[in-house]
Structure formats: C-alpha cells, structure tokens
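HUMAN: Mind making up another protein with tokenized structure?

ASSISTANT:
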Amino acid sequence: MRLQPGDGGVAILFAPEEAGVLKQLVTQLVMLLQSHSGTPLDPDPLFASLEIGGSDERPTDPALARLFPNAFADEDDAAQFRQVTEQGLINRKLQDAQLVMGDLDDGSGEERGGLDADPFDDLVDDVDVDSGNPISVNITQDSFLAWARTITALRLAMAARIGLEREEDYDRLIDEDATRGTVLVYDWLAALLEAVLALSAVQSED
C-alpha cells in the first residue's frame, strides 16, 4: 500500500491481493447490513439517511450488535430510540460502503461481482503486498469520511466476530491459527484507516 497524488485527491496504490481482500470485506459488510435492513435502500441519499424505522431489540449477531449498540443504558429508552433511528443508521453505513465499493471498482476497472455467502468468513491468512501491478484507487475530499467510517465498521465487525475486546484478547487471538489471519487483516485495516485520516487532514489544510 503506497500513496501518491490523485485526480482531485490522493490515490492509494493497493497490491492486487490487498484490493481483493478489501473488496471482499466491503461486499460482506454490505451483505451484513442488508440482512438487518427492514427496507430497500432509497436511491435518494438524503431521504435514505433520514429514514425513520428500526427494531426495538439489540441485534443478536455480535457484529451487528457492535455496529448498532444501545444508545442508552435503560432498555426501554434504548428500544424507543432504536425504533426511530436504526434504519437511517443502516442506510448511512450502506451508502458509505457502496461509495467505497465504487471507488474500488473504478480503480480495478472491474464490474462489481457477486456476493459471497457468509459475511466475514474465509478471510485470507496473508496479503502479499509486493506482487502484481498496483491498483490505484482515488480518494477525494468528498469520499474521505465514507472511507474512514467504512473501515471503522469493518474493524468493529471483525473484532466482534472473533471476540477481540481487550489487549489480552489480541495477544491470544494472534497466536491462534484459526484467528491469526483475521487479526492480521484487522491490523492492516488499522494502517489503512490511519493513512486515510492523515490524508484527510492534509487535504483539509490545502
């Protein structure tokens, strides 16, 4: 992963394997969000982000529960607030993820593929950052926040799925064969998020 000036923003150069992993993860995030959505995503971005509706219960899926936590300690207050705001939050996360997916498709020159069956399963264990021709993905000032929010959502969902909550969890999970690959991708996403936030700060100063 390298950085260079882009068209109206900054381009991130991904190795093909990196771009493939990120595209898979964002696709799975879209699947996860759609599975919890009560309505199709409205094509009008403003209307979709302000849509009222939602469940009155915290999701049982640990990834969704991490993405949509209770806003209040009191269960009744949390349920009432969720019923009004949850669908709008889902829609905004979907909009962000689809923007990122569009940027990745533009960079790779590929059409958006089909959706995998199991969200956040079968992650690659290692990403070879030096092989193949790099894929340039342009990120502009208008898309920085969507990228930052989507990467954050991915890390929250992945951490919830493998039980990564405290530092001692990290030390244990990185040593286990079953979770090591996911932890490595989680760390790579942290580096990507740091780069996106740094680029956003530089662009804001220009």
Notes: The longest helix spans residues 75-108.
